[in-house]
Amino acid sequence: MQRHPIVLYLSCILGGLLLGTLFLWAGESIRIALQPTLSSYTIEELREQRLRGFSQQFGSSDGSGSQLNPDQTYMVYGYLPYWNMSSANLHPAQTHISYFGLFVDESGRFLQEPVGDGMGFRTFNASRYSALEEAVLLQSKKLEITIVMVQSDTIANFLSSTTAQDRLIEQLKVLANPQPISGLNIDIEYAGQVTPALRRAYVEFIRRVAEEIRDPINAGISPNQDPFHLSIAVFGGSASNANSFWDLVSLEPLVDSIIIMAYDYHLRGSTIAGPVSPLFGSSSDRLSEDIMRHISDFFKIIPGEKLVLGIPFYGYEWRTVSAVPGSPTFPNTGAVATYKRIRELLLRDDVHEQWDTTTLTPYITYQEEGQTRFITYENSQSIAFKLDLVRQTGMKGVAVWAMGYEGEYLDLWEVIEQKLR
Questions:
Q1: Contact, 266 vs 275, CB < 8 A?
Q2: Do 90 and 139 touch, CB atoms closer than 8 A?
Q3: How far, in Å, CA of 158 to CA of 387, rounded?
Q4: CA-CA distance, 62 to 397, in Å (whole number)?
Q5: What does the pLDDT profile of the chain (421 residues) look like in tens digits?
Q6: I need a surface site. Which of 18, 27, 97, 379 has the fewest CB within 10 A?
Q7: Closest CA to 262 of 305, 301, 210, 297
Q8: Which residues does 210 contact at the CB level (< 8 Å), separation at least 6?
Q9: How many whole angstroms separate alpha carbon 369 and alpha carbon 253?
Q10: What are the C-alpha distances in Å from 204 to residues 207, 216, 302?
C-alpha cells in the first residue's frame, strides 16, 4: 500500500530529529566529563545537526530549516484564562486571543455563579474584559471566545438534549454578532466511556453550530465582516484512537481549525515523573505515547492547513523517589508549575536546568526540606523544536496554553515570534 506523502514527510523529520538526538547523546558523554550541566553549545549542536538533516531531506539550500512555503503566515493562538486576566501579556507574536472562557452546564446555559468557573462569565461581563477588547483591537489582533465543557456526565446529558443545544446555539449567535469577537473555540473535553451515539451527537452539534454561526444570514452577521472562525480543541491522541470522542473525519469539513492539545502526557496525579509535552519517547520503556506519533496519525486524515499544535507554558512538579526522569512520585504531591515559577526557581544556586535526551524536554530537580522535588516543563529550546515541526509540516500554527503563566519572562513568546512571525 502506498504511504501518504505527509507520513513519509514526517518520517523524514523523525529521522532528522533522531539523528540530532544521537548527536546529543555523544555530546552528553563529553559533557559529563567536562562540566556538571548541559551547555548551550551542546543544545546548539543538536539544533544544527537536526536542521542539516532537514535540509538534506527537503532541499533547503541554506540549511536553515526554513518552512516549505516561505510565504505561509501562521496562526499564533493564545488562550487567556479568566484567572490570568491581570498577569497576561499581549505580545507581537500573537495573532489570535481567545478568552477562556464561558463554561456551559448540561442545560446549555452559561455558568454564572460568583465562584469557580462561573467567574468566567462574570469576568466576561466586567471591566477587565472590556480592557482586553480595547487592547486587542488597538494591536490589530483577532479576539475569540472559548466555550468550555469538561465534566463527562454534563457533556453526555447536554449532547442528548436538543433543547439544551438549541439554547446554547442561540446564545452563541448573540456572541457571534457584535464585533470585535471574530471566532469561537469549542472546547468540549469528554473523558468518559465513548459510544457511537455520543460521537454522532457531537458531530451533529458542531454541524449545527457551523451552520448557524458561520452563515451570515442565520447569525445576523454583516456580509462585510470577515468570515467567522470556528475551531475545536481535541486531545493529543484523538487521531490515534479510532474510537475517540472526536470523529475527526466527519468534523474536519465543519470547522476552520483543529487545535491539538499536545500536552498533559503526564499529569499532577501521575505515578511517575515525566514530560508534559514529549516530542519523542514512545519507543522507550518510559512512555507509550509522544507528539510525533500522534501528529503523524493526524496527518493521515486531516490536512495540515487546519491543524494547530498546542504548546504548554507550564509543567508539573512532584515529590519523587529520585532525581531522574521516570522516577516514582509520592501520592498527592503533584501540582502545576507555571513557567514563571520555574524561572524563579532557576535563580537559586542549587537549581540547574537539565535535559531529557529521550523526549527533548527540560527538567529541574532540587532538595526541599530533605525531599527531592522534580519539575518537568517547556523552555525556549524545546518549544523551538516543536515550532520547527510546525513549519516543516505546513501546519496552520500553534496555540498556547496559557497566557499569563509566563509572568514577566517573555522568552517563550520571543522564540515563537522568531520562528513563525
A1: yes
A2: yes
A3: 36
A4: 23
A5: 444 545 445 555 555 554 444 334 333 332 222 222 333 434 445 445 444 443 343 333 333 344 457 778 999 999 999 999 999 999 999 999 999 999 999 999 999 999 999 999 999 999 999 999 999 999 999 999 999 999 999 999 999 999 999 999 999 999 888 668 999 999 999 999 999 999 999 999 999 999 999 875 565 556 556 789 999 999 999 999 999 999 999 999 999 999 999 999 999 999 999 999 999 999 888 899 999 999 999 999 999 999 999 999 999 999 999 999 999 999 999 999 999 999 999 999 999 999 999 999 999 999 999 999 999 999 999 999 999 999 999 999 999 999 999 999 999 999 999 999 8
A6: 18
A7: 297
A8: 230, 254, 255
A9: 55
A10: 5, 20, 19
Q: Nine-digit cell at 204?
A: 451533529
Cis peptide before 101 (omega within 30 of 0): yes
- Strand arrangement, sheet containing 352-356: 335-338, 314-320, 371-376, 361-368, 352-356
Residue carrying the nine cell digits 469528554: 190
Distance between CA atoms of residues 377 and 375, nearest Å: 7
286-324 b/e with 16+ CB inside 10 Å = b? bbeebbbbbbbbbbeebebebbbbbbbbbbbbbbbeebe
Question: Cell numbers at residue 111, please?
Answer: 455558568
Set of cell numbers at residue 345: 526557581
The three cell numbers locating residue 113: 455563579
Structure-block grid coordinates of residue 234? 481535541
Compute and round to an integer the Cα radius of gyration of the chain: 22
Considering only CA atoms, which of 154, 151, 83 is closest in space to residue 120? 83
